[in-house]
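Limitations
The structure tokens in this dataset are predictions for the assembled complex, not deposited experimental models. Users should treat interface geometry with appropriate caution, especially where small molecules or nucleic acid strands are included. An illustrative entry is reproduced here so readers can see what is and is not provided.
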Amino acid sequence: MLAIKLAFKNLIGAGLRTWLNAFVLSIAYVVIIWHSGILEGWNRQARRDMIDWQIGGGEVWQKNYDPYDPFTLTDAHAPVPEKFQEQIKAGKLTPILVTSGSFYPEGRIQSVLLKGIDPQQSILKLPAGSLQKDNEAIPAMIGTRMAKNNRLKEGDYVTIRWRDALGTFDAAEIKIARIFKTSVPAVDNGQIWLPLDQLQNMLQMPGEATYLILEPGQNPIKISGWQHQGYDVLLAEMDEIIRRKSIGGTILYTIMLLLAMLAIFDTQVFAIFRRQKEIGTDIALGMTRGQVIGLFTVEGAVHGILAAVMAAIYGIPLLSMQAVHGMAMPEGMDDYGLAGAERIFPVYSTALIIGTVILVMITTTIVSYLPSLKIAKMKPTDAIRGKLQ
Amino acid sequence: MENGKLITIQNLVKHYPMGKGRFTALKDINLTFEKGEFSGVVGPSGSGKTTLLNIMGSLDVPSEGTVRVLGSEIGTLSHKAAARLRNHNIGFIFQTYNLMPVYNVFENVEFPLLLLKMPVKERRQAVLDALEWVGLSDKVKSRPKQLSGGESQRVSIARAMVKRPHIVLADEPTANLDADNSHHILQTMEKLNRDLKTTFIFATHDDKVIQYLKRKISLADGKVQSDEKSPGNRNPESGHEIQ
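Predicted assembly:
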């Protein structure tokens, strides 16, 4: 208690030097919290968007389906089991049929995944309702990336080609009924969404699906030949990307922290050199060497407290404002395959804030303690006279 | 305490390493100090005065011989025990005052009592009393840089006296002061010695201090040359020498 009281007095008395150090350290607090908050916000948003647009509450795969191997698509379909029908009718499960094909935008051939979706579904955010029957052509919807890459716009007609269940090639004209904007590239790039029943007819696979998507919160019915895939599998890739991003973030804020610690370390070394006389006097007045080391260590650590206060003063309004307004992300960033919205809203959890404060405090204390050990080697008789040692 | 003796020094020798050899700062010193003394170790620079004071103050240890302060043998004390001895029983007055620049006068004087963990109310009264003894009751809030040399040294005296120690060790307390201020602080210390029976031991070569001493131990080349008690030859009111 005495050390804290004296440390505060000494630091406040030291004036500008203390506040400069505290300011540098406060930047470390704010940057670490801001950066982690952005990453956390981004991660949550990406997961939420994947759930909303792509995977719902989980998927039930036909046993041959492997999303990473397009060759499996030929065999990855089967009639939707009767036991699923009740959930499908209730809108808690929706079937998706997938096949590979090609299409010819502006006369060029492009590989594409044709996906059939129920226009009535409401599990995913995909605007499947726009796939209403059209007498002129098969209605289709594509994402903005797909539209941009192939110079397609709503109302355009384009030819698609596929092979049906019997291996016969067939072709038809589709009309781009809707171009949707999503932050999830996995439902956009290289994909054309068609009405499920029409795709089933085109492929001669009536009542069949490749996989089904569950409504969030729904439990799957276990049926032979169909495998439930939960978030652990469906979000594994995303979690891996998040983990790698976190490592990058950790490196960044370790550098920030090291810079701040360098300032504290230098201050401590300088203070011990400059305040030798004071150290000698403290010992003459009855402090033990341990108490003096404790005092200097606490002084260093108190920088952490002052910095936290300072960071709170300018950091809370700054970070709160960003939490409300979000941070604009550059266009085309999600072309790299990571779901990213136009604006990222950072998330600052209590654990993040408390964790950062504890981390900075512990690091500051250690960095303050190390140079203070020099005090133990000082001869008080020389220190009192301020003799260089 | 042994037979009323606060400090007993027997066959004290102090060496310091110097290059490949060593330098002997104190040679075979034998002295005793009793309660209430107002004495001084006098001699030229390098005679070993400060070294002797430092050892008596448990800031340094003897190379040979024994030094007992209030029954504790300095050479055998741990760092903690030495700190405790200084904290409870010894006050220091330094040539350069050694006040904490970031503390005000009150806080500087209060500092030793904080180490003694004295309760707030008692502590506050003790500090105010000490400042009254040295005539600085009106400077409670001043910072050291706002004080003159004489005032700074008086704060230093108050800081040394505030815990009512048995012994005050003053190393060249007047070296940075003019004549008037020197007499003023010496009178203050003499009064405290008289009123509180505190033992004052000076290390000095300043004649202004020497004329106040009731016992003068002369040191040269680390050896005691003489140890004489004197009645004092100055006017106790003005502090000026009587011709």
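Some entries come with short summary sentences. For this one: Strands of chain B lie at 5-18, 21-34, 38-42, 64-69, 72-73, 90-93, 167-171, 199-204, 215-220, 223-229.
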